[in-house]
Design a protein that fits this description.
This protein has about 120 residues and is α/β, with parallel strands linked by helices. The protein has one domain (about 15-115): Rossmann fold. Helices cover about 35% and strands about 15% of the residues.
């Protein structure tokens, strides 16, 4: 399993490059997308955007019990989202996305656990 990001709550992370998995449920709420990015930049992160970010974000495959009822759909969503992340470190603010990325080789951090 990939080593997880280790970030102290109040530390400034210099030269860290991350990709963000935006929550599908708020894909049409630019205020949230921009706020998450502003906070991460303020903490010292550089952001490498996925081609599927903000309003184009991919569904993580975890909501609505899809992972239990149709695992093939959930697994395909996982493959697509993982392949689309240009950085090896991923930050998300969706519980389903967090669970999804824990199943990958990407280092992952839940935005809520760190801010």
């Amino acid at each position: 399993m990939a080593e997880r990001l280790k970030i102290e709550k109040d530390s400034l992370v210099k030269d860290a490059v991350v990709s963000i998995q935006d929550s599908y449920s708020v894909r049409n709420v630019p205020l949230i997308h921009n706020s998450v990015r502003k906070l991460l930049i303020k903490k010292g992160y550089s952001i490498k955007e996925s081609k599927y970010c903000k309003e184009k974000t991919l569904y993580c495959g975890m909501g609505g019990m899809v992972g239990m009822l149709r695992p093939s759909i959930s697994n395909k969503a996982l493959e697509m989202a993982t392949a689309a992340m240009p950085a090896n470190e991923v930050i998300s603010y969706c519980g389903g996305c967090h669970s999804m990325f824990l199943r990958t080789e990407k280092s992952h951090l839940s935005f809520r656990s760190y801010i």
